[in-house]
Amino acid sequence: MKNFESMNRSDQEAYLMLPIINELKQLGGQSTSKELKRNVVADDKLIQENVLTSFKKSLSTGRKYLPFNFPFNFAITNLVMAGMLERPKKGTLKLTKKARDFHGTGKELSDQVYEISLPEWYTRSEKNKKEKIALHQIKEVNKSELDIDDGLEEDNWRSTILDALMQLSSAKFELFCRALVKKMNVDIDETIGTKLTGDGGLGGYGYITTDDFRTSRVAIQAKRWSLNNSVSSPEIDKFRGAMDKFRAEFGIFITTSTFTRDAVAASRAGTRVITLIDGDKLLDLIAKFELYVTPKVITTYELDDFFKEKN
Q1: What's the predicted TM-score (pTM) here?
Q2: Are strands 64-65 and 56-57 parallel, antiparallel or unpaired?
Q3: What does the alpha-carbon distance between residue 61 and residue 84 come to, in Å, rounded to a whole number?
Q4: Which CATH number fits domain 168-289: 3.40.1350.10, 3.20.20.100, 1.10.10.10, 3.30.70.60?
Q5: What is the pLDDT of residues 201-239, one digit of tens each?
Q6: What SS3 state is found at 189?
């Protein structure tokens, strides 16, 4: 089978349907769309590991976007139309009984889904009255009518921050990562892992105290790598050696890039699991802690029915 990148957009969309259903089953039947997307990428060997940080620039608007979001979101929308998924609330996806009972192949699933969703696409198309029209043509005409959140604004700011991180020097990126880990309640040691040389292979070191007042040593590694250069398992092994040198119970490995699947497996081996923070997770944490960034969009809220119902 072709790898995901070499497929056309429609084939990518159809291919993603089965991994989406299978991952939701593994996640207990319900998940946020972000968690689901990460799991699909992490577990499917046909999908490149860096698709969640591989941004492209729009020729028409000049803004950055994540190409993977389009087939992923269209696959989700088709599954919802076919009654395989539900959206109990914004950003959350839930399997229906119909999906839980499905045990066929990817081709059988996409055929079953399109049998229901294609007529719905036709119904949504007010500008196309012909009996036969290619699915991709319908979508191109009706992009503004799609019931999906393709997150183009989010893609743009995430790409902007990632570009800015890549412009930092190695020393400044390590400083940035120590600041991030400090936000994660790690008390940074100012004497270990603060130099580019002679640090024993560390980008930082600190201590974390649990609610029952037990303190553990935390080793930190930071790699400002290009998106095409994934962190491999030998780097994980090297970091674990540095953890041994400083007797760290925990390890946090941060990169602007991604981790190979072998690196993920290596991080989970042995008695001390290493927490991996790739470029995609790093952007999430930067937004969460507002680390050297300032949000510009005011959050609004929609009232639930509780407030609308008569007393």
Answers
A1: 0.80
A2: antiparallel
A3: 35
A4: 3.40.1350.10
A5: 688 999 999 888 899 999 999 999 988 899 999 999 999
A6: coil
